[in-house]
């Protein structure tokens, strides 16, 4: 919890604005990414790209959740979401949506979770 | 070793990457007060060192230190620790620890959306935090189990007594656990999954 001595915003608020290029989160046309959407890069970083965008493309060679990207970039999830929305729109990344929410999770899914945990 | 990407931004260590086949993720939320052992539990079952993600909330200042009547806004940063368990080559489970107090509920919308369920972790010496959290989960219709973290110095209460103190219905499982212990934390998660399965079997097929 916002522990003193462990600030996240070393770059100051203007970094958030720059990274998100001033856009508000959640643009239409694309389903917004969620905390545990898995992001996979579909393009190589290019010169002149925002460092954070280039970093996302490098770290997402293998699937990585939005939460993990936020942790590695040390940026709030809302800012990362905006960044990813841009990359998705440009087809530079692909997002693998979480298992769809239902009132109750699917029995097969629960079985898979059960087996996975039992193997720990 | 963390490898460096752009401008010194470190990505995951090579042993922390998921297989390319990872197709979808699910999440479970661990709710509890400060110091109750959320991060300990996440860390004991996670395959990666727990990571921290942060979110900011802007709220109007209380006005105590207003200068010339200008309303000040304060930014609260809340950190959530989380971990990961690869359930199989395609399915990944993420575990998020989040504070139970009402002032942090702004975090809950994105967090509980699509979550399988929650573990309410409690310290028997400080049950108050859990009251709010349990009430809120019930309101939101999030299935949960209550896990009593075994602190060596905490008094041991019979489960029935704790249930009564928390006004917890019999349908909600309550289990003892040791958040430091991997097997015990895994069993807590298994208890949640079993509870979710039981909700299926008691759900009537026709209204």
From TrEMBL, chain A:
<keyword id="KW-0812">Transmembrane</keyword>
<feature type="region of interest" description="Disordered">
    <location>
        <begin position="1"/>
        <end position="28"/>
    </location>
</feature>
<feature type="transmembrane region" description="Helical">
    <location>
        <begin position="69"/>
        <end position="88"/>
    </location>
</feature>
<dbReference type="InterPro" id="IPR007995">
    <property type="entry name" value="DUF742"/>
</dbReference>
<keyword id="KW-1133">Transmembrane helix</keyword>
<keyword id="KW-0472">Membrane</keyword>
<dbReference type="Pfam" id="PF05331">
    <property type="entry name" value="DUF742"/>
</dbReference>
<protein>
    <recommendedName>
        <fullName>DUF742 domain-containing protein</fullName>
    </recommendedName>
</protein>
<feature type="compositionally biased region" description="Basic and acidic residues">
    <location>
        <begin position="1"/>
        <end position="13"/>
    </location>
</feature>
From TrEMBL, chain B:
<keyword id="KW-0342">GTP-binding</keyword>
<keyword id="KW-0378">Hydrolase</keyword>
<dbReference type="GO" id="GO:0016787">
    <property type="term" value="F:hydrolase activity"/>
</dbReference>
<dbReference type="GO" id="GO:0005524">
    <property type="term" value="F:ATP binding"/>
</dbReference>
<dbReference type="InterPro" id="IPR004130">
    <property type="entry name" value="Gpn"/>
</dbReference>
<comment type="similarity">
    <text>Belongs to the GPN-loop GTPase family.</text>
</comment>
<keyword id="KW-0067">ATP-binding</keyword>
<protein>
    <submittedName>
        <fullName>ATP-binding protein</fullName>
    </submittedName>
</protein>
<dbReference type="GO" id="GO:0005525">
    <property type="term" value="F:GTP binding"/>
</dbReference>
<dbReference type="Pfam" id="PF03029">
    <property type="entry name" value="ATP_bind_1"/>
</dbReference>
<dbReference type="InterPro" id="IPR052705">
    <property type="entry name" value="Gliding_Motility_GTPase"/>
</dbReference>
<dbReference type="InterPro" id="IPR027417">
    <property type="entry name" value="P-loop_NTPase"/>
</dbReference>
<keyword id="KW-0547">Nucleotide-binding</keyword>
């Amino acid at each position: 919890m916002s522990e003193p001595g462990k600030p996240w915003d070393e770059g100051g608020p203007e970094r958030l604005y720059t990274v998100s290029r001033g856009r508000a989160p959640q643009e239409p046309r694309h389903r917004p990414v969620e905390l545990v959407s898995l992001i996979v890069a579909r393009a190589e970083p290019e010169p002149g790209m925002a460092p954070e965008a280039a970093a996302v493309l490098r770290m997402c060679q293998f699937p990585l959740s939005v939460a993990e990207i936020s942790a590695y970039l040390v940026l709030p999830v809302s800012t990362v979401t905006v960044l990813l929305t841009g990359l998705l729109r440009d087809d530079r990344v692909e997002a693998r949506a979480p298992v769809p929410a239902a009132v109750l999770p699917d029995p097969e899914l629960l079985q898979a979770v059960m087996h996975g945990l039992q193997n720990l | 070793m963390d490898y460096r990407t752009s401008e010194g931004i470190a990505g995951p260590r090579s042993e922390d990457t998921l297989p390319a086949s990872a197709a979808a993720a699910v999440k479970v939320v661990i709710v509890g007060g400060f110091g109750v052992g959320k991060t300990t539990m996440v860390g004991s079952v996670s395959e990666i060192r727990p990571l921290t993600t942060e979110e900011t909330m802007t709220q109007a200042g209380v006005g105590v230190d207003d200068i010339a009547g200008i309303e000040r806004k304060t930014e609260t940063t809340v950190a959530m620790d989380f971990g990961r368990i690869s359930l199989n080559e395609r399915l990944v489970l993420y575990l998020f620890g989040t504070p139970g107090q009402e002032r942090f509920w702004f975090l809950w919308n994105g967090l509980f959306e699509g979550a399988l369920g929650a573990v309410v972790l409690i310290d028997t010496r400080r049950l108050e935090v859990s009251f709010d959290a349990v009430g809120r989960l019930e309101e939101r219709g999030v299935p949960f189990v209550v896990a009593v973290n075994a602190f060596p110095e905490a008094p041991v209460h019979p489960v029935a007594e704790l249930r009564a103190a928390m006004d917890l219905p019999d349908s909600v499982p309550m289990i003892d656990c040791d958040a430091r212990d991997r097997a015990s934390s895994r069993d807590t998660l298994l208890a949640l999954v079993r509870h979710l399965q039981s909700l299926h079997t008691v759900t009537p097929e026709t209204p």
